[in-house]
Design brief:
The complex is a heterodimer of chains A (303) and B (489). In chain A, helix 1 packs antiparallel against helix 2 and helix 1 runs antiparallel to helix 4. In chain A, 35% of the residues lie in helices and 29% in strands. Chain A is built from 8 helices and 12 strands. Chain A folds into 3 domains: 104 residues; 89 residues, OB fold (Dihydrolipoamide Acetyltransferase, E2P), CATH 2.40.50; 92 residues. With 489 residues, chain B is an all-alpha fold. Chain B has 5 domains: 60 residues, no CATH class; 76 residues, no CATH class; 79 residues, no CATH class; 114 residues, no CATH class; 118 residues, no CATH class. A two-stranded antiparallel sheet of chain B has the order 2-3. In chain B, helix 20 runs antiparallel to helix 21. The chains are: A alpha+beta (303), B mainly alpha (489). Strand 9 of chain A pairs antiparallel with strand 1 of chain B.
Chain lengths: 303, 489
């Protein structure tokens, strides 16, 4: 219980800091020095709430020199506020959502215990891999899609560069057969593979028809989990197009969804598709999405 | 959404200055917003945060897409040639992993020659590479297919790969362009219609300053012909020294010009074949003034071991075609070279052969020469040059490698063996990186030759050579694999 109390104290202090910021106006934020953010981050880490510290760090990392930073800032601040409120009213929430809030604050899930639960056995298509690095800590995100279950999953792997190697490696564009257990959540996505064996199953397309279905899913998602992570979607026909000097993905109904700013490998996507509409795998949430692979023919090609 | 804008405005200015104004909405949103407003326990910041949290979720639950209206999406034209095999792609990947642009280029050439296309997924990687490496551009564009051209037109970073990029000369570039643009326009015109280009230059000549004149005159090098002589001759009297020098330089390249004819007369008077023996008569110095004006120098005071007459005669020989000498002396080329070389004129003749692009004569000189001339490499046929290089591979190994490496023709087995012998003796001067950009020239047959055949039983720096050889052979094996992929199919 000691930890919960410390987190509560940390949250109280964070809330005062946020309110203070709003009272003074956020217009001066771009001029704030590093210490302004670092103090709060450090206090949250001391309060054993690394998840919240990470959310503050994301706010710190916003490109304040770019036009429109206010919109991004406000969205992230409000998401942080929702998590705080969730934690402060944890008992009132449904049990699965409680787990989401706890994980967002930084409480870990005992993975050994998780492995003892029964998972979903399926052939999982490895549709994409995203890797990032911060302070020599490498984070790998593998996006999986169940051939029979039709469910998507996110497998995370962390390791310190130069100190330890990756525990496992999944090759995008391949498929594995195995049992997968989801982390407890109101809308399970993050998972771990209990067993995994490479198979030669072809990666056939299966998925949604249009952006409309994606948006329906997102509406359902935020009714269950207001602060939700990026999701994996496979959509039957998307075409990368330029509209008002910005990249969009156009579906069969000629509806446009923005491509995530800075999304890598767009030129590779254009090279493979030649500008034609094709079944595509995308990762994202809200208003922008990043393509991670495409089906130019019967075979999937990861970007 | 007005609510969101209001929220943002209040957050920007600060709730200390102004509280979030009351917002009205419809349906359940109104109920939620009213509940926040009416809760007396909420301070101004609470109201802003809670209202914001509700609005955030309201907004994200109702995201919509944009209509594409009449947007027409650009697509690439279909391909007419087949893509290369996955095995061929693997050999390209290996070349890139090894870091060899030369092998990458070799692969692209093989692919284009075999009539195949590069798989589209690889295009961005190769196009990025080619923007930074000029040598890859032309071969890449030969096997990138319609897809590659389409991408290059779409991506401004790749526009440089499109043929003709950067040489787009507008119609009025000649009149209004910068000096480099005008030079480019004149050179292009010269390639298409030499006479018209000359007229174009003559028409504007009076308006140009000296520096511009010299730069534009240089462009006449393209398609230089006897038709240019009268005007160039006039320019030798120009006020500007630069222009004069450039005009003489061009005239000296034309055997029909008066100055080359004068050189020939002087040479003919000084060198003669009398009963099969070459007799050299000393020049009557000083030579006519125009000869010195045209660029022939007098012996500098610091020169030793040479008379002024010989010095000036050697310069004159270097300015007359070798074919003239052969005709004048009534000797076939081989004998002409042999006898003039014996008379100390070998270097001068070689200069003349290079100057007048007399490839046959270069070869005749190299066949007999005992001197290493690095400047002749790749001015003669590869077989002749290789035979010439073989004679110097041991003594002048590093220069031979350098010059052979600058060529485009694959090395023969014999010269490669000689070069490997040299490297084995100097293993610390060469490493894998040195050969990365020469790998395409190395013959794959060397992989199957027992090194004893070229080293004999002599053991050089064995360990160092073995380590280098392993890396060299890795490059050659990669070349062999790519050749096999494209010749098998």
């Amino acid at each position: 219980m000691a930890r919960e109390a410390r987190v509560n104290d940390g949250i109280g202090e964070l809330l005062r800091w946020m309110k203070d910021m709003l009272r003074n106006g956020i217009i001066h934020l771009p001029e704030k020095n590093q210490a302004y953010w670092e103090n709060t981050i450090r206090r949250l880490i001391d309060a054993q709430a690394p998840g919240l510290a990470g959310m503050v760090r994301n706010i710190q990392d916003i490109a304040y020199f770019r036009e429109g930073w206010q919109e991004v800032f406000l969205q992230q601040l409000l998401k942080l506020y929702i998590v705080i409120q969730g934690y402060q009213h944890l008992e009132a929430l449904p049990a699965p959502l409680q787990q989401d809030v706890r994980q967002l604050c930084g409480f870990t899930v005992n993975q050994e215990q998780l492995k003892s639960f029964q998972g979903i056995t399926d052939t999982w298509m490895v549709l994409g891999k995203q890797a990032s690095e911060q302070d020599k800590l490498v984070t790998e995100r593998y996006w999986l899609y169940g051939v029979n279950s039709g469910r998507s999953a996110l497998i995370l792997q962390f390791y310190a560069r130069h100190f330890s190697g990756a525990g496992f490696s999944l090759q995008p564009g391949t498929a594995v057969h195995g049992e997968l257990v989801y982390f407890p959540s109101a809308q399970p996505l993050r998972a771990l593979l209990k067993t995994c064996q490479l198979t030669h199953t072809p990666l056939r397309f299966r998925g949604m028809e249009s952006w409309e279905e994606v948006l329906e899913h997102q509406s359902m998602l935020c009714s269950q989990l207001p602060v939700y992570p990026e999701q994996l979607y496979t959509i039957a026909s998307l075409q990368l197009v330029q509209y008002r000097q910005q990249w969009y993905l156009m579906d069969r109904q000629r509806r446009l969804m923005a491509v995530k700013p800075g999304a890598p490998k767009l030129w590779k996507l254009l090279a493979i598709t030649g500008g034609q509409a094709m079944p595509m795998a995308v990762v994202g949430a809200g208003r922008d999405y990043e393509p991670i692979g495409v089906w130019p023919d019967a075979h999937y090609q990861a970007l | 959404m007005e609510h969101w804008q209001l929220l943002m405005k209040t957050a920007l200015l600060g709730t200390g200055k102004q509280a979030l104004p009351a917002m009205t909405a419809r349906d359940e949103l109104e109920t939620a917003l009213a509940a926040i407003r009416q809760d007396a326990a909420n301070d101004r910041e609470d109201v802003l945060l809670k209202t914001g949290a509700v609005l955030l979720n309201y907004r994200q639950a109702g995201i919509t897409t944009l209509p594409a209206d009449n947007l027409s999406a650009a697509t690439a034209a279909p391909e007419t040639r087949p893509y290369c095999s996955p095995e061929a792609v693997a050999s390209l990947q290996e070349a890139m992993d090894l870091g060899s642009n030369a092998l990458t280029k070799h692969w692209l050439e093989l692919c284009a020659d075999a009539g195949y296309l590069l798989p589209p997924a690889l295009l961005p990687l190769l196009m990025d590479k080619a923007t930074g490496s000029k040598q890859l551009r032309a071969p890449l564009m030969k096997c990138c297919g319609n897809r590659g051209f389409w991408l290059a037109q779409l991506n401004p970073d790749w526009a440089i790969l499109l043929p003709g990029h950067g040489v787009e000369i507008s119609a009025d570039a000649w009149e209004t362009g910068t000096l480099p643009q005008r030079c480019e326009a004149l050179t292009r015109k010269r390639s298409e219609d030499p006479e018209a280009a000359l007229t174009m230059l003559m028409e504007t000549w009076k308006q140009e300053n000296a520096a511009t004149r010299a730069a534009l005159l240089e462009c006449l090098q393209t398609e230089l012909s006897p038709n240019d002589i009268p005007w160039l001759q006039q320019l030798t009297a120009d006020k500007s020294l630069k222009v004069k020098e450039k005009a003489w330089e061009l005239l000296r390249q034309l055997p029909q010009s008066e100055i080359v004819q004068s050189y020939q007369q002087l040479v003919a008077a000084a060198i003669n074949n009398i009963d099969g023996a070459i007799i050299i008569t000393e020049l009557q110095l000083p030579l006519p003034a125009n000869i010195y004006q045209s660029g022939i120098d007098k012996l500098p005071p610091s020169a030793l071991h040479m008379s002024d007459e010989t010095y000036q005669l050697q310069q004159l020989v270097a300015q007359v075609p070798c074919s003239f000498l052969s005709k004048h002396l009534d000797l076939p080329p081989a004998a002409c070279v042999q006898q003039l070389a014996a008379a100390g004129m070998e270097a001068a003749m070689l200069k003349a052969a290079i100057h007048f692009k007399e490839t046959d004569w270069i070869e005749h000189i190299l066949e007999q020469s005992h001197t290493f001339y690095p400047e002749v490499f790749h001015l003669a046929s590869p077989a002749k040059l290789e035979a010439y290089a073989m004679r110097f591979a041991e003594k002048e190994g590093s220069a031979v490698i350098l010059r052979m490496g600058a060529g485009t023709t694959p090395w023969g087995l014999a010269i490669t063996q000689q070069i490997f012998r040299f490297i084995a003796m100097h293993p610390y001067s060469y490493n894998r990186n040195y050969f990365l950009e020469l790998a395409h020239l190395l013959p794959v047959e060397i992989l199957h030759i027992d090194e004893k055949r070229y080293f004999g039983d002599i053991l050089y720096n064995q360990q160092a050579w073995k380590s280098l050889k392993e890396k060299l052979f890795e490059l050659i094996a990669c070349k062999a694999a790519m050749q096999q992929q494209f010749t098998q199919r």
